[in-house]
Amino acid sequence: MEEVASKGFAGTKGSIEGPYYVPGAPHRGSHGAVPMRQNEAGTPLRWRGRVTSTDGHALEHATVELWQADADGLYSQFAPGIPDWNLRGTCSVDSEGRFEIRTIRPAPYQIPTDGACGKLIAAAGWHAWRPAHLHVKVSAPGHELLTAQLYFPGDEHNDDDIASAVKPELMLNPRPAPDGDGETVVYDFVLDPVPACTRLPSGGSPMLFHVRMDVHLPHDMDPDVRAETVAREKDYSQRLQRSGKWPHLWRIAGEYSNISVFDVESTDELHELLSSLPLFPYMTIKVTPLATHPSKV
Ligand SMILES: [Fe+2]
Predict the structure, then answer these.
(1) Cβ neighbour number for residue 57 with a 10 Å cutoff
(2) Whether residue 16 is found in the same domain as residue 53
(3) Enclosing domain of residue 236
(4) CA 33 to ligand 1 centroid distance, Å
(5) What's the CA-to-centroid distance between 111 and ligand 1, angstroms?
(6) Among 133-142, 158-167, 185-194, 207-216, whose mean pLDDT is lowest?
(7) What is the DSSP string of 83-106?
(8) Integer distance in angstroms from the first to the last C-alpha of the chain?
(9) Is residue 255 located within the same domain as residue 122?
């Protein structure tokens, strides 16, 4: 299904999302470490990369969302005893589209073998192993969302992945770090622009949407989580404003609400921008498409 959806794309190859994605991973800037436990087990991995469009220009408003298993092959938010958001982070890029993420090399793991999936695996005589991999979602305004997995050479399950998701283009090339502390790797992403055929006919005029957002944060929300989420919302919204995608942002006096105008290329792009807001899970959103008024002078 993923191959059919991305057929005709010229950018970086995608791969399946898998079951362990959780939206809203903490933002770590353009050069930072994903959240980790003290003395997180595993080989330190320093990953540098760049996000560009298919014509080569840097996508300075791109984000790279990373999630991965730990050195025991376990995911936070799914395995017990691991802090939420461990080894999950969202990286922005700098003005040249560059980012650096510090993490650890993940371990291979077996997919769950209970339920119908386990019966199928047993009946077919397969094993349940996936090779070690990093999961990413890479997004930028006006571009297709890329969901991919990156793999490590030499993994014994690269050739018999139970999910059949390994592609040679998604193979990393880790090297020993010059300072002797783990490994470094360089991997860049190229995103495909949203094709014109998915844009609504607009007669050449901008696609403007009036958007009202009402925020309802839970009263019992942890104060630190609340402060961190609001800070990420501010950072993300300011980057969108600077990109020209969010030209008007007005507070509604006396309410935790705003009236905004978005200037986007497609309804898909508007949805992507809104659903990426850190406060999105806590919002009621009303979208009104705007058209040119015939009496406008
Ligand atoms: Fe995975």
Answers:
(1) 9
(2) yes
(3) 197-289
(4) 19
(5) 9
(6) 158-167
(7) -TTTTEEEEE--TTSEEEEEEE--
(8) 49
(9) no
45 plus 118 within the same structural domain: yes
pLDDT of residue 2: 54
Domain count of the chain? 2
Q: What's the mean pLDDT in 242-268?
A: 89
Ligand 1 centroid, distance to 68 Cα (angstroms):
6
Which alpha helices (H) appear in 57-212, and where do they start and end?
115-124
Q: Is residue 171 part of a domain?
A: yes
Q: How far is the CA of 136 from the centre of ligand 1 (A)?
A: 10
CATH of the domain at 283: 3.30.70.1060
Verify that 25 and 153 share a domain, yes or no.
yes
Record the pTM. 0.67
Query: For residue range 201-242, what is the model confidence (pLDDT) as tens digits?
Result: 444 556 899 999 999 998 888 888 888 888 888 888 888 887
Please tell me the distance from the alpha carbon of residue 145 to that of residue 14, in angstroms, as a whole number.
Answer: 9
The neighbour count for residue 296, using CB atoms within 10 Å, is 5
- The mean pLDDT value of the chain amounts to 89
How many A from CA of 280 to the centre of ligand 1?
25
204 shares a domain with 97: no
246 and 152 together in one domain = no
Dist. CA 169 → ligand 1 center (Å): 18
Q: How many angstroms separate the alpha carbon of residue 135 from the centre of ligand 1? A: 6
